[in-house]
Each structure stands twice: as C-alpha cells, then as structure tokens.
Amino acid sequence: MIIAIDGPAASGKGTLGSRLAQHYGLRHLDTGLLYRAVAKAVLDAGKPPQDKATAVVAARALDHAHLDRHVLQADAIGTAASIVSAFPEVRAVLVEYQRSFAAKPPGAVLDGRDIGTVIAPNADVKIFLVASAEERARRRTKDVEKRGERADFERILADIRTRDDRDTNRPISPLKPAPDAHLLDTTQLDIDAVIRAAIDIVEATRTGRGRG
Ligand code: DC
C-alpha cells in the first residue's frame, strides 16, 4: 500500500506520516528532508539558495541514508529548501529516489508537496492536509519554544505565508491537491484526532467506501 500525504508548511505531515507508517507497518519518507538537505549543502558551501548549479550538484551528491531531522528542521533551512525545490533540475534528481522508495514492498507513506500528483499518482490513498496559516504558525512557535529557543510568532507566520505562496505558485510540481485526494482540515484538531481521521480515510478507501 502507498499512502501519499501532501500539505503546506507546518501542517503536521511529518508527524502524521510517521504515525500512519507505524500503524500500517509501512516505511516512511519525509520528502521535505531531501530538499532541506540539498538546501543545507548549498548554504554550507557558502552559496545562496538561488544558486542553481550548486543546488543541482548537491542534489546529485545527496546521502539519502543520513538525513539528520534534528539539524534540518531549522526554519532558515526550510525557507532555503522552498527556493531550491523550485528548480526543475533539482526535482528531477530527487524524483527517482522517491519513486523507488515508494515502490519497494510492502509499500510506504510519503509526505511532501507533490506526492499525490507527481511522485505517486497511483497511490492507494491520498490525503491533503489543510490548516489556517495562523494555526500552523502557532504550532511551529510551540515547537521552537519546546526546543528551548526563542520564537517570534509574527516572523514565523510571515515565513509560512511566503513559503505557501512560493510552493503553491511555482510552475513545476506546485503544492495542490490531486483530484482524488481526501482533504483533511486540521485547524481545529489535535494530532491524535488528525491520526484517527486519517486512519478512517485509509480504511474507508480500502473497503471501497472512500473516493480514492
Ligand atoms: O515539508 P517541509 O517544510 O520539510 O519542506 C521544505 C520545502 O521543501 C518546502 O517549502 C517545499 C519543498 N518540498 C517540495 O517542493 N516538495 C516536496 N515533496 C517536499 C518539500
């Protein structure tokens, strides 16, 4: 079984992806980490994320086995990832890895922006998460504070809006729901309620009651 989860920045895709994978005994790939790792390599090389040539070299050299979520979660890396991910040449390099990850038995849960539309258009279940920008900024602010760092809600909200705009309006693989995706609005839900709702969607789809 392949489960595709897409949605905007800070919509809870990663947490939902890992919990669904655990529940169904599937492998999990947070595809945002791939773009984040490319962005970090560009920044580490002392180049701006707009430097396409360096980004393509970094994508080709990416060590998929060693993606350090802890290091890659920094907001500055997320913003740079949103910039490098708009280069078609970078996406082309990363697409193959994601598709072969999804294809290996017993299947996988992948989360990102273009899983249901480009990476796994034949996924068994597609879920598209939505939540208001304000709620996502509140969650991100809490995460940062939990790590013991200072968080500026207004700056985080502005950053989320900029990333939404860039990820949604780029010409290649923009963030958008696949026609057969199930929309799940998490604005009013805590993480346990989101997971229950997602499992209901998967079960309904498997038993033929869903649209997917
Ligand atoms: O989900 P995230 O915040 O970790 O993603 C970081 C950036 O990577 C996001 O702003 C856009 C890009 N991305 C993408 O273009 N396609 C994906 N499948 C996953 C992430």
Observed structural traits:
212 residues, Rossmann fold, 5-stranded parallel sheet, alpha/beta, 55% helix, binds 2'-deoxycytidine-5'-monophosphate
Principal-axes geometry comes out as globular
Termini separation comes to: 13 Å
How large is the count of helical segments?
A: 10
List the bound ligands. 2'-deoxycytidine-5'-monophosphate
At the fourth CATH level, what is the homologous superfamily?
P-loop containing nucleotide triphosphate hydrolases
Low-confidence stretches: none
Helix content range: 40-55%
Count structural domains.
Answer: 1
Strand portion: 5-15%
Based on helices, strands and strand pairing, what is the structural class? alpha/beta
Computed over alpha carbons, the radius of gyration is: 16 Å
- Mean pLDDT across all amino acids: 94
Strand segment count: 5
Q: Which sequence of strands runs across the widest sheet?
A: 2-3-1-4-5
Order of helices and strands: EHEHHHHHEHEHHEH
CATH class placement: Alpha Beta
Question: Could you state the oligomeric state of the chains shown?
Answer: single chain
CATH fold field value: Rossmann fold
Largest sheet: 5 strands, parallel
Description of the structure:
- This protein is of the alpha/beta class and 212 residues long.
- The protein has 10 helices and 5 strands.
- It has a 5-stranded parallel sheet with strand order 2-3-1-4-5, with helices on both faces.
- Helix 1 crosses helix 10.
- The structure holds 2'-deoxycytidine-5'-monophosphate.
